[in-house]
Write a structure and sequence with these properties.
The complex is a heterodimer of chains A (about 475) and B (about 260).
Chain A (H helix, E strand, L loop, with lengths): L2 E5 L9 E7 L5 E8 L5 H4 L8 H4 L8 H15 L10 H33 L10 H7 L1 H22 L8 E2 L2 E2 L5 H9 L6 H21 L1 H6 L6 E6 L11 E5 L5 E6 L8 E4 L8 E4 L3 H4 L2 E2 L2 H7 L6 H13 L10 H21 L18 E8 L2 E9 L5 E7 L1 H4 L1 H16 L7 H12 L5 H5 L7 E6 L5 E7 L2
Parallel strand pairs in A: 6-11
Antiparallel strand pairs in A: 1-2, 1-15, 2-3, 4-5, 6-7, 7-8, 9-10, 12-13, 13-14, 15-16
Chain B lengths: L1 H27 L5 E5 L2 E5 L5 H7 L23 E4 L2 E4 L10 E3 L3 H17 L14 H8 L16 E2 L5 E4 L8 H5 L9 E4 L6 E4 L1 H6 L2 H10 L5 E3 L25
Parallel strand pairs in B: 1-5
Antiparallel strand pairs in B: 1-2, 3-4, 3-5, 6-7, 7-10, 8-9
Classes of the chains: A alpha+beta (about 475), B alpha+beta (about 260).
Chain lengths: ~475, ~260
């Protein structure tokens, strides 16, 4: 008898989604889907608003990485006010934004690793859910929990100093920034009381990476073989091929490392990227046009970024990058759980970048904005913590937005997450008569590795519950297990 | 527009007359200081001063919304309602008289003011999180002053439009509280009013004279935005230029600039 298994809610991710797995009469997985079940409609209701509101308005999509939306929208409006694509800002304008962004990257990656992902690693995928959470981490691994909290706090303080508020600030404006960094603010980050200073943050980021590598060495089979599948990878890279999370050109590589998009200008992304709508999810499925809908899907985020870039332009992260690349013989890495490894290398890189920027006198400059001949359309791309984020606006003669297209990181990862769910479903559920909590969590672990922000992806609200149901071929529910988000 | 214009003119004339009357009264007192009491505090006023003005000079804050320093008072919003001899009257248009005993900071009036702020919030579409006037907005500041956690009245969600067809400014009717500060306070060098009301009752909105608006200076456009107590008048292309921390109400809540 065929069965349908529903997983709702999925926990320790941002937003609300569910998973359905269909089993055929012999108990084999015939279909699996990761559904995004909420809808917000930002692209529609920003229409009619003035373009300069976009950085502040669209960041309300998310409370975890609003800075990414804030900056992507600001970059799109830079184009509109004639300040160019990423490189036309004043040094103070661009570097303040970069500082804000790397602060964001540092805090978001820390949040994901310490608060969301570490319980699975520290306690095991099938451990008791009562302890397999951030409180459990705080009780059993106090030092690690404190590091996670303080690293997040440091990143958020950087955001506060650059955007005005830790969450939903107003720092980036069309053509630049609305404040510089005072020497007092700078010194608080450079020489702040232990542990809240940048040297300690670099040290802790390195320690988190060492912790992961230690875990990896003891659990190679799980980390290397969990949900491995070939994927294309896409991200921004610096013009010289270096990792750049704020600005660059669009590069995509195949599972074997062949360039599919060869460093193209993202202003005409729509010539290269298409979006497919499927009737069972509010989240679209982007694809690379030249490869078509079936084969053109791609992964974004830390794994993709370290697959597309040629090097990392900070010394400690570059050293780690070399070890990481050597592990796959220089080929693109397609292991889902290696996303945590890549994320921690980026965390270290973000900390190094913060130090480099803090030592730059341009942050105390007074020329904050740039302006040129106004355009009616602008595209802003940024590498958000979860991957490439697209903001595209068109305005009318009266400065009102008439079209908005947002492709958020998690939307880009829609198909890879579905692939990961399919992989786990096939390996965990095939022929199993009963659902266990560990089976449900293994599906979540695969989704969680992408650090998905489902609220952003669908422009949705709420926590992510997980419900799993066994249904007969007639749709009648045989067994249900439910968890709260 | 012509009807509302003439109404506005008539109202202004009435206010000027009232002021003149109170001035002549004061003259008979040979310009001596007027003694009055507000919330038990003994105060003095200059002849001709309204209750709101005199209270401010004496370090007593009476909440206002349509009143603006240096602008002819209009008595529209009723935030400044005070009690004089048991009667409630608008503090911004009532002249102080010798021996007046005024109540302002009393629970009955404060609750009424809070209710008015709440009504203004539900009557329009006020979305502070994305409004560029946030931090500089008098209505928002009053909401904080009265600790408006949840509105006690149902949201009206009126269908209102953004008029972006002007040259220097944009009028967001979602946020307009119809205080008429823009009508009274924004004039060209030759004294012509840039703003006016159009339509009637619940449908009335602020409009600008297109010819005049196209010619106003950036400074006057900024003044119109600054004088608007909410985010209904926006100067084009300059949003969010003032960082959080340096906005009007970031450091001190509304009223503290007066209250001693």
């Amino acid at each position: 008898m065929g069965r349908k298994i529903t997983i709702e809610p999925v926990t320790r991710v941002e937003g609300h989604g569910k998973v359905t797995i269909l089993l055929d009469d012999s108990g084999n997985v015939s279909q699996s889907r990761f559904h995004i079940v909420e809808f917000r409609g930002f692209e529609r209701f920003v229409q009619g608003r003035p373009y300069w509101e976009m950085p502040v308005l669209t960041q309300r999509l998310c409370g975890i990485c609003p800075v990414s939306h804030h900056l992507a929208a600001a970059k799109a409006t830079d184009v509109i006010v004639g300040a160019g694509t990423g490189e036309g800002l004043t040094p103070t304008g661009e570097k303040m934004r970069r500082l804000m962004h790397y602060g964001q990257m540092f805090q978001s990656h820390s949040l994901h690793f310490f608060h969301l992902a570490s319980p699975d690693l520290l306690f095991g995928i099938d451990a008791d859910p009562a302890i397999r959470n951030v409180i459990g981490v705080a009780m059993k691994h106090k030092d690690l929990a404190v590091q996670g909290v303080m690293m997040r706090k440091f990143g958020q303080e950087i955001i506060r100093a650059t955007a005005g508020k830790k969450i939903h600030g107003t720092g980036a404006i069309p053509g630049g920034i609305n404040k510089n960094l005072s020497l007092k603010e700078r010194d608080e980050f450079l020489k702040g009381a232990d542990p809240l200073n940048i040297d300690k943050m670099i040290q802790w980021a390195q320690a988190a990476l060492d912790f992961f590598k230690g875990y990896h060495s003891k659990n190679r089979s799980m980390i290397d073989n969990f949900a491995v599948f070939p994927s294309n990878h896409l991200s921004l890279v610096r013009k010289d091929g270096g990792l750049d999370l704020y600005h660059g050109v669009l590069r995509a590589v195949s599972p074997e490392g062949k360039k599919i998009l060869n460093d193209v200008d993202y202003q005409d992304y729509y010539n290269h990227i298409g979006e497919e709508v499927r009737n069972w999810s509010y989240m679209k499925f982007p694809y690379i046009k030249s490869l078509g809908k079936k084969n053109g899907w791609y992964t974004v985020g830390p794994l993709a970024r370290l697959n597309t870039c040629d090097f990392i332009p900070t010394p400690l992260a570059q050293k780690e990058f070399e070890t990481y690349k050597a592990y796959t013989g220089g080929k693109p890495n397609n292991s889902t759980m290696h996303m945590h490894w890549a994320r921690l290398i980026e965390t270290l890189h973000a900390a190094e970048m913060i130090r480099e920027l803090l030592l730059d006198k341009d942050l105390q400059g007074t020329k904050l904005t740039a302006k040129g001949a106004k355009l009616r359309e602008g595209v802003g791309l940024i590498e958000a913590p979860r991957g490439t984020l697209f903001h595209h606006y068109k305005i009318n003669d009266q400065d009102q937005v008439i079209m908005a297209n947002l492709i958020v990181s998690t939307t880009n990862n829609n198909e890879p997450m579905n692939q990961a769910v399919a992989y786990v479903a096939k390996s965990e559920f095939t022929g199993k008569p009963e659902i266990t909590e560990g089976m449900m969590n293994s599906v979540e672990v695969a989704i969680r590795a992408y650090d998905p922000c489902l609220s952003c992806a669908t422009h949705a609200i709420g926590s992510m519950p997980l419900e799993m149901a066994l249904c007969g071929p007639d749709g009648k529910i045989i067994d249900v297990k439910r968890k709260q988000g | 527009m012509s009807t509302s214009k003439s109404k506005t003119k008539a109202k202004a004339k009435h206010d000027v007359k009232a002021k003149a009357k109170s001035k002549s009264k004061s003259k008979s007192m040979k310009s001596s200081k007027i003694r009055f009491e507000i919330d038990g505090k003994e105060c003095t006023a200059k002849p001709g001063q309204t209750i709101v003005e005199a209270a401010r000079d004496n370090g007593v804050y009476i909440p206002v919304l349509c009143w603006y320093e240096g602008m002819e008072p209009a008595g529209i919003c009723r935030m400044c309602m005070v009690k004089v001899g048991g009667r409630t009257m608008p503090g911004c248009t009532t002249p102080v008289a010798e021996g007046m005993i005024i109540e302002s900071d009393v629970p009955e009036l404060e609750d009424m003011r809070k209710a008015m702020v709440e009504m203004l919030f539900v009557e329009g579409n006020h979305l502070c999180p994305t409004c560029e006037k946030s931090g500089n907005c008098d209505l928002q500041a009053l909401g904080y002053r009265y600790r408006m956690m949840v509105p006690r009245f149902p949201y009206q969600f009126p269908l209102r439009l953004v008029d972006a067809t002007y040259t220097k400014i944009m009028i967001d009717n979602n946020r307009c509280v119809q205080c008429r500060r823009c009508i009274r306070g924004i004039t060209t060098k030759d004294g012509r009013h840039v703003f006016a009301m159009t339509k009637r009752s619940g449908k009335s909105t602020i409009v600008a004279d297109r010819e005049l608006e196209a010619k106003i200076s950036d400074a006057l456009a900024k003044k119109a935005m600054d004088q608007c107590p909410v985010g209904a008048i926006l100067k084009k292309e300059t949003g969010f230029a003032l960082p959080i921390g340096r906005r009007k109400y970031d450091k001190a809540p509304i009223g503290t600039e007066v209250h001693k």
